[in-house]
Write a structure and sequence with these properties.
Layout: E1 5-9, H1 21-35, E2 39-45, H2 52-55, E3 58-59, E4 67-70, E5 73-76, E6 78-84, E7 89-95, H3 97-100, H4 117-135, E8 141-145, H5 151-157, E9 170-175, H6 188-193, H7 210-219, E10 223-226, H8 233-242, E11 246-248, H9 256-267
Parallel strand pairs: 1-2, 1-8, 2-7, 8-9, 9-10, 10-11
Antiparallel strand pairs: 3-6, 4-5, 6-7
Length: 269
């Protein structure tokens, strides 16, 4: 992985999120690539529970200030950045006052999902692309973690398909255990279709459950890493029928070598 540029995208990353399997993997995988001579950038949402002073976040004015269009509404993009202590890894935070400055992350105090989580996913995906374009940083690999990130592969392969900066990028999606029941707002498909993406391409978004969001991400990825132990049979069948490279990562504590090998395999495709 020496000198390879790897972009990690996740809704949870240590030390900015409470400990979880997703937050830990989203920290340990970049740290592994960084230790092996790779160049790393991490993107995550700037949720309201992230303490900006403690983690020394600061706004990057030259990257902020553009508007992201969500369902015909202009939404201002704010970019903040911090460095993970002792790791020399930069983390970029996608921010907006309306979408992310609430106390909770994806659920309110009663455990209900925020009704605008669908729009937040679109904003997150588009915000990442626009920021990477401004950075002029060409990623060799883009590794997606968590359902909040699942629209990024779709947008990269459709809406942004003519962007030269991503023309050689390989996309990998990690499938973890589901962390919500039910579905996002069922108008998500219309909001994505507003961007000129055919409804046939995004048919699973008619019912945006966790696994249907993952279906969309996997369909537009070059490889898949499965770290979930709760895979429905129909989802396993879907995965097999796509005939994409899949790494079944059962050893979550000692994954480094298998990840390096898998990255190398995808880069050779």
């Amino acid at each position: 992985m020496k000198d390879k540029k790897v972009l990690y995208v996740s809704s949870e990353v240590l030390p900015y999120s409470p400990y979880s399997e997703l937050a830990n993997l989203s920290f340990e995988a970049p740290r592994m690539v960084n230790a092996n001579g790779g160049q790393i950038r991490i993107f995550m949402p700037k949720f309201g529970n992230i303490n900006e002073r403690r983690h020394q976040l600061h706004e990057v004015i030259r990257l902020s200030g553009i508007n992201i269009v969500i369902n015909d509404i202009d939404v201002p993009l704010i970019i903040k950045v911090a460095s993970i202590p002792k790791e020399r890894i930069q983390v970029y935070f996608i921010d907006n006052d309306d979408y992310f400055h609430r106390t909770g992350t994806l659920f309110d105090e009663e455990g209900n999902m925020y009704p605008d989580n669908d729009e937040r996913c679109i904003f997150f995906a588009k915000g990442i692309v626009e920021t990477v374009k401004k950075l002029n940083w060409l990623p060799d690999v883009i590794h997606i973690h968590g359902w909040v990130s699942t629209l990024l592969p779709l947008y990269l392969r459709t809406y942004y398909k003519d962007e030269p900066i991503f023309s050689e990028s390989k996309i990998i999606t990690s499938v973890t255990d589901p962390d919500f029941e039910g579905s996002l707002d069922n108008t998500l498909i219309n909001k994505v279709a507003f961007d000129g993406i055919s409804k046939k391409t995004i048919e699973p978004l008619k019912n945006p459950t966790y696994h249907n969001l993952m279906r969309i991400a996997i369909k537009h990825s070059d490889g898949v890493i499965v770290v979930s132990e709760q895979i429905p049979e129909d989802f396993q069948t879907y995965l097999k029928n796509l005939r994409k490279p899949v790494l079944y990562n059962s050893d979550k504590e000692n994954f480094q070598e298998s990840y390096r090998t898998f990255y190398t395999k995808i880069l050779k495709k």
